[in-house]
């Protein structure tokens, strides 16, 4: 009996895709929900999971073929071999030999289980092994954490697929692994002996050599863009599997070419010579993948957007008085503290309705206006800044906003956010005031057109009704893309936020 593997729904207005990569070949054993192949559309990369466990049958669509929605990609043959991985099949003769030798296998009941890279999220094809919590020869319980992987955005923990003993670690700390790749091998049961570490090193060597093989097929969309723009593939640094060039790599090369006509900034210049004494006291640490991504995206924002920042200040007296008056009752009813962030989210949603340009984005020569507010809330974590998204914030109550921000913030600091929870934001709020920042110019979070920077609340003398009074004041900064947002719109947005915060009743009356 066979199961069909078909092209999933690709998204609104997307009718076809290109088969970019097959992770499995005919005859390979697959498990249910294991990634079989990767499809590439004009917008996103879509991973196709296995609908059932079994053995890979015929590949109907090959790499590079264009397929429509619901088109047949391949078949999966169901049978007794479904529960075994390809590597387990290859090891069967060895296991039979071991079972006849009492010294090699004390129990004879252990079964080899592959430790695989889990699904990393949409458009994420690889990760770096950050930390192994176990070493070869260690006994583990089912679902016990074995290692931690680091992607561009989140950390992914890999649990043990069964109870047993770690026999081989194929990907060491610092190595890059692909989605669906093999991290190691363990033997289920309590009587399994650990394999020598030298074997693990010998088996990992071919994997390293194959990773360095440059004879790979580039993504079809990347080849098309290179042909259209007249770019030599040798000038593009591939970041895909086995060094394959992806569409994003071509776009990065185009941006680099455009900026090369201007003098390189000081940060791009070679490092100045240092004395041997100074060098001995320095420490060189490789940037994490998250930090590399943050650096790249922030620089891209500066290179592509006509970014400008406008400022205002807000008197926080009314919000602080309202919060102090109702915070105990709010906590008693909803079980969560009333903070300032919900007021700012509500005020921004209110202002975005009046100035929709700040909530829009540019797509080529089109402007996409969004009739919703997916509010990104920047959160500082030990590994870097991430921006989880509060979806449909304009339709949420104060307590729902506080609850969601609290939940996302905690999961961000624990490295538990999924890729989906950090995508699709239409506007962002960044609160540097929690760290004591008095004034700053936040950088846009592409492709968004606006980001609001909050700052420290500080008592300052202000003139109120002709008298000098001490007021809790906060500076606000709105960075925006001047290609779509005019100065008038940016100033109007900040004024509406200021008015809503200085008189919170306006939020209730929709004024």
UniProtKB/TrEMBL annotation:
Pfam family, one: 2-oxoacid_dh
InterPro entries with a match to the protein in the record: 2-oxoacid_dehydrogenase, 2-oxoacid_DH_actylTfrase, Biotin_lipoyl, PSBD, SucB
GO molecular function, one term: dihydrolipoyllysine-residue succinyltransferase activity
Keyword check for Translocase: no
Keywords for the protein's UniProt record, in alphabetical order: Acyltransferase, Lipoyl, Transferase, Tricarboxylic acid cycle
Entry EC no(s): 2.3.1.61
Catalytic activity field: N(6)-[(R)-dihydrolipoyl]-L-lysyl-[protein] + succinyl-CoA = N(6)-[(R)-S(8)-succinyldihydrolipoyl]-L-lysyl-[protein] + CoA
Biased composition, class Low complexity, residue ranges: 254-276
Biased composition (Basic and acidic residues): 88-101
Highest taxon above the source species: Bacteria
Domain Peripheral subunit-binding (PSBD): 217-254
Acyltransferase keyword on record: yes
Function: E2 component of the 2-oxoglutarate dehydrogenase (OGDH) complex which catalyzes the second step in the conversion of 2-oxoglutarate to succinyl-CoA and CO(2).
Family, per entry: Belongs to the 2-oxoacid dehydrogenase family.
Name of the protein: Dihydrolipoyllysine-residue succinyltransferase component of 2-oxoglutarate dehydrogenase complex
């Amino acid at each position: 009996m066979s199961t069909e593997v078909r092209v999933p729904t690709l998204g609104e207005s997307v009718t076809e895709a290109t088969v970019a990569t097959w992770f499995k070949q005919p005859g390979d054993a697959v498990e249910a929900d294991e990634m079989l192949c990767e499809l590439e559309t004009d917008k996103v990369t879509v991973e196709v999971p296995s609908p059932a466990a079994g053995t890979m049958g015929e590949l109907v669509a090959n790499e590079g073929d264009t397929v429509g929605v619901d088109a047949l990609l391949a078949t999966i043959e169901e049978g007794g071999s479904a529960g075994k991985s390809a590597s387990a099949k290859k090891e069967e003769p060895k296991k039979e030999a071991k079972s006849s030798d009492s010294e090699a296998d004390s129990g004879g009941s252990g079964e080899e289980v592959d430790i695989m890279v889990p699904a990393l999220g949409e458009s994420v094809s690889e990760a770096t092994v950050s930390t192994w919590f176990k070493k070869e020869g260690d006994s583990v319980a089912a679902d016990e954490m074995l290692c931690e992987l680091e992607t561009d955005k989140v950390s992914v923990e890999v649990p043990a697929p069964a109870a047993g003993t770690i026999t081989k670690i194929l990907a060491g700390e610092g190595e890059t692994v692909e989605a669906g790749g093999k991290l190691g091998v363990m033997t289920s049961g309590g009587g399994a002996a650990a394999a020598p570490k030298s074997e693990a090193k010998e088996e990992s060597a071919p994997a390293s050599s194959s990773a360095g093989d440059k004879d790979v097929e580039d993504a079809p969309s990347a080849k098309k863009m290179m042909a259209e723009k007249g770019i030599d593939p040798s000038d593009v640094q591939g970041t895909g599997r086995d060094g394959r060039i992806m569409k994003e790599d071509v776009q990065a090369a185009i941006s680099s070419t455009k900026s090369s006509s201007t003098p390189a900034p000081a940060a791009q210049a070679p490092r100045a010579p240092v004395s041997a004494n100074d060098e001995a006291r320095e420490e060189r640490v490789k940037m994490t993948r998250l930090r590399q991504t943050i650096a790249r995206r922030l620089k891209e924002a500066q290179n592509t957007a006509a970014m400008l920042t406008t400022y205002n200040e807000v008197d926080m007296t009314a919000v602080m008085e309202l919060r102090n008056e109702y915070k105990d009752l709010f906590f008693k009813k909803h079980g969560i503290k009333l903070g300032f962030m919900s007021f700012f989210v509500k005020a921004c949603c209110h202002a975005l309705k009046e100035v929709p340009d700040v909530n829009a984005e540019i797509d080529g020569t089109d402007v996409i206006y969004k009739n919703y507010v997916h509010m990104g809330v920047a959160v500082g974590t030990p590994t870097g800044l991430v921006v989880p998204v509060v979806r449909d914030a304009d339709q949420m109550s104060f307590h729902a906003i506080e609850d969601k921000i609290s939940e996302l913030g905690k999961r961000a600091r624990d490295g538990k956010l999924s890729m989906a929870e950090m995508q699709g934001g239409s506007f962002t709020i960044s609160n540097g005031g929690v760290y004591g920042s008095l004034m700053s110019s936040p950088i846009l979070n592409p492709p968004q057109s606006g980001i609001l920077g909050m700052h420290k609340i500080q008592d300052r003398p202000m003139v109120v009704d002709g008298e000098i009074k001490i007021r809790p004041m906060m500076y606000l900064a709105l960075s925006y893309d001047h290609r779509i947002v005019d100065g008038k719109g940016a100033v109007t947005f900040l004024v509406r936020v200021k008015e809503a915060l200085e008189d919170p009743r306006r939020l209730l009356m929709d004024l």
